[in-house]
Amino acid sequence: MQTKKLHCTSCNKTVNATIKKETEIYPDRKAYLAKREPRDYWACVCGSHVRVDKEKVHVRYVLTTGKFSAIKNNIHSLIDPIWKSKKMTRPEVYRYMSKITKTKDFHVSLISCMKDAEKALKEAETLNGLYFNR
Ligand SMILES: [Zn+2]
Description:
By secondary structure, the protein is α+β, with helices and mostly antiparallel strands. Helices cover 42% and strands 18% of the residues. It has two domains: 3-62, no CATH class; 65-131. The chain has a five-stranded mixed sheet with strand order 4-3-2-1-5.
């Protein structure tokens, strides 16, 4: 079985993650997943997980679950519309987030602690607010 040593934010240690299908991670997505190929996830025995980056842009991963995952999803929902609507390019958004969060190569899947996640969320809210009236 393919394993990978990854940091799990729930277990707060490095664990041997294994590959799981999206259908195992999100059984409630079954109907939705009938329409497209289920994605692969790295998963910890505790249930934390992260999507496998097929493009191999980011080779480092952090496993998360629960509130942590929810915050990370919120960050995506705030920053993705900015580059999707071409208000900024995707690299510009990530460069901005790297600078403001003092991260060398900012990526949502690499946020490794709740403190960083909350800080990034706040910055993503500010950035989103510049472009979208809420
Ligand atoms: Zn774990």
